[in-house]
UniProtKB/TrEMBL annotation:
Composition bias, Gly residues: 92-102
Name recorded for this polypeptide: Septin-type G domain-containing protein
Keywords recorded for this protein, A-Z: Cytoplasm, GTP-binding, Nucleotide-binding
Main localization of the protein described in the UniProt heading: cytoplasm
Similarity comment: family membership: Belongs to the TRAFAC class TrmE-Era-EngA-EngB-Septin-like GTPase superfamily. Septin GTPase family.
InterPro entries documented for this protein: G_SEPTIN_dom, P-loop_NTPase, Septin, Septin3
Organism: Cirrhinus molitorella
PANTHER family: SEPTIN
Every Septin-type G domain range: 126-398
Length: 417
């Protein structure tokens, strides 16, 4: 490496010959690097090192960029229950391990609300059963009212009854089943009739065959439940609703009416109706309804819907209105007449047409809406959860428990029962 300090001294000597020759210190490249390092130290930087790490930019791997998970869009066929966003409310104040019931904010649509649609599709495929019993004296229009309720010929008399049929000497139980469909929903409707009830001179204990039939259906369902290899869907023949027809006397209930409802209200849902209410004036109808309600309350008879089964204040408010309207004063008819340019179901009289579905003429529309459009499922649930469970608990306690029924020992088990 050239000696820069000697060259500099020679140039200065040549420029000024009078100056003496002075020997200057010698600087090397290492000294220059050291000087630069000290300068950086003054500027609060680290001294330069003799070795440097060489970085190959081609070896640097950029971090993996993961795509943001896509939030599935809400199906177009699902209608939101409300426009208010979901705000979870914590259900506990404990520490860790106690937050199992605590809600969490949803980051996107999940689809929990589609369970209702799933249940609807399944019900439409399988259908459901509804069994209704009609009880009352002959000539009160029981078959006509059932046909009017379901707007089809579903009663026993509409299918196989002849006018030559005589009134039986004892109470008989006859049922007829139909499959009716509306809006893609199938329902197996069974109408149970009780010819001969209240038509005898001596009507003592005439409700016993009816009570026996109802309990037999509970027993049949119970046997299917205790089977080892039971059916996936147990046939339901239990009576879900009993329409009791009261004669429109305008005075009070008969002793037969009181005794029947007192015994049967414990095992089945009873809905009392005043048959052929068009034979009463408006004042007579109001007074008769009030008198019937007082007698039922005095005898301790609870008709459906029972007060003790009201689940919340909303149910209580709706059911109170129904209890105040009982017994329903109804008129049945399966014939149509022209009234004000439209066809209506009604009964024609010399002074006009009594319109069945006109709430100013009778309370048929209230009965239909209550029994079919708002409380049909509740009738089935009360039958299963209350009446059937009461029978089941009593049956198992009395018998010490039912043994499972096999296909070979079914006859033996039935004989023991």
């Amino acid at each position: 490496m050239p000696n820069f300090s000697s060259s500099r001294a020679l140039r200065m000597r040549a420029a000024s010959p009078s100056l003496p020759l002075v020997s200057l210190p010698t600087f090397t490249s290492r000294d220059c690097k050291t000087a630069r390092g000290r300068k950086r130290t003054k500027n609060k930087t680290y001294p330069a090192t003799a070795t440097k790490t060489r970085i190959d930019m081609s070896e640097i791997v950029p971090p993996e960029v993961r795509p943001k998970p896509a939030v599935p869009a809400k199906p177009s066929h699902v209608v939101p229950p409300s426009s208010v966003p979901f705000v979870p409310s914590p259900q506990g104040t404990g520490g860790e391990g106690q937050g199992s019931g605590r809600g969490s904010a949803l980051l996107g649509y999940i689809g929990i609300d589609t369970i209702i649609e799933q249940m609807r599709k399944k019900t439409m495929k399988t259908g459901f059963d509804f069994n209704i019993m009609v009880v009352g004296q002959s000539g009160l229009g029981k078959s006509t009212l059932v046909n009017t309720l379901f707007k089809s010929q579903v009663s026993r008399r509409s299918t196989g009854w002849s006018r030559d049929e005589k009134i039986p000497k004892t109470v008989e139980i006859k049922s007829v089943s139909h499959v009716i469909e509306e809006g893609g929903v199938k329902m197996k409707l069974t109408v149970v009739d009780t010819p001969g009830f209240g038509d005898q001179i001596n009507n003592e204990n005439c409700w016993e065959p009816i009570s026996k039939y109802i309990n037999e259906q509970y027993e049949k369902f119970l046997k299917e439940e205790v089977n080892i290899a039971r059916k996936k869907r147990i046939p339901d023949t239990r009576v879900h609703c009993c329409l009791y027809f009261i004669s429109p006397t305008g005075h009070s209930l008969r002793q037969l009416d009181v005794e029947f409802m007192k015994h049967l209200s414990r095992v089945v849902n009873i809905i009392p109706v005043i048959a052929k209410s068009d034979t009463l004036t408006l004042d007579e109808k109001i007074e008769f309804k009030q008198r019937v309600r007082k007698e039922l309350e005095a005898c301790g008879i609870e008709c459906y819907p029972q007060k003790e089964f009201d689940e919340d204040m909303e149910d209580k408010s709706d059911n109170d209105k129904i209890r105040e309207a009982m017994p329903f004063a109804v008129v049945g008819s399966d014939k149509e007449y022209q009234v004000n340019g439209k066809r209506v179901l009604g009964r024609k009289t010399p002074w006009g047409v009594v319109e069945v579905e006109n709430s100013n003429h009778c309370e048929f529309s209230l009965l239909r809406d209550f029994m079919i459009r708002s409380h049909l499922q509740d009738l089935k649930e009360v039958t299963h959860n209350i009446h059937y469970e009461t029978y089941r608990a009593k049956r198992l306690n009395d018998n010490g428990g039912l043994h499972p029924i096999s296909s070979s020992g079914q006859d033996t088990q039935e004989s023991n029962l």
